[in-house]
Design brief:
Blueprint lengths: L8 H10 L5 H17 L13
Helix pairs in contact: 1-2
């Protein structure tokens, strides 16, 4: 049986990518905010905001 990726994996990838896009002090907080919102949400109720990167 193969492992499934976490439901917020794409949000985490957005956070990592934001670290390398311009000034991390400006690009990371919005991505981090969406990641935290995803982690705190119930399964199936993840934020529908567009991905940043």
């Amino acid at each position: 049986k193969r492992a499934r990726q976490h439901r917020c994996n794409d949000r985490l990838e957005d956070v990592v990518q934001s670290l390398f896009e311009g000034n991390p002090l400006l690009t990371t907080p919005p991505a981090w905010s969406l990641f935290v919102k995803c982690m705190r949400s119930e399964v199936g109720d993840e934020p529908r905001d567009p991905f940043l990167y």
